Amino acid sequence: MRINSFFSKLLLIFSILLMTYLYAQYERKKYYSYGENSPSELVLKQLPSFNSVEVGTGKKISSIEFLKGTSGVFVHIWGSWCAPCEKEMPEFLKYAESVKGKGVKFLLVAVNDEEMKIKKFMGRFSIPQNVTIVMDKENIVMDLFGTLKVPESFLFDSNGKHINKFIGPQEWLQDSFKTRLDFWLNMQNSVERKIETH
Question: 156: buried, middle or exposed (CB in 10 Å: 19+, 13-18, 0-12)?
Fold first, then answer.
């Protein structure tokens, strides 16, 4: 009788653990997939045309003008109020520095933010020459890109074609990001392939 009771308790504990694990996996998948498009059905095809204001100088920056003379552009949507953005930023800036020789530029678009807070936030970091920090004063960028949460990054080729999307914070210093960048920038005109989302 005691053996049956023991196995019943063990089965109950195992069932509870299994249900907890399955529910956690379900919630994780729901969180990370919310708002994503399947690779073959990517809505955003081209770099949207928008204007933003450079932090510190007040200079108007056009996304289309920013693209000119580059081999590609990263548009990184973030906010100084966003904890995952804060954690990701040091690696993202180091990544930008490491690929500047490839002719890639980075447009860091702060959304729902204030200039003083952005300056204070970014003042802790060394900003590479290929990085421009702007504010979305018109609050249109998230809608244009279909972004529901930050951080989110988009890679466009020199013609403004959307070639990759990075959802959520990334580990930018992994070697794979450098090697894949070469592939994305060099192969996108000759090979039709599905867009990757991360």
Answer: buried
* CATH code where residue 45 lies: 3.40.30.10
**CA–CA separation, 198 vs 176, rounded Å?**
12
Residue 84 burial (CB < 10 Å; 0-12/13-18/19+)? middle
pTM: 0.74
pLDDT tens-digit readout, 161-175: 999 999 999 999 998
The mean per-residue pLDDT over the stretch 41-51 comes to 84
Query: Taken in order 94, 133, 70, 185, is the CA torsion positive or negative?
Result: positive
Q: What percent of the chain is predicted at pLDDT more than 70? A: 84
Q: What is the DSSP letter of 21?
A: H
**Same domain as 10, residue 45:** no
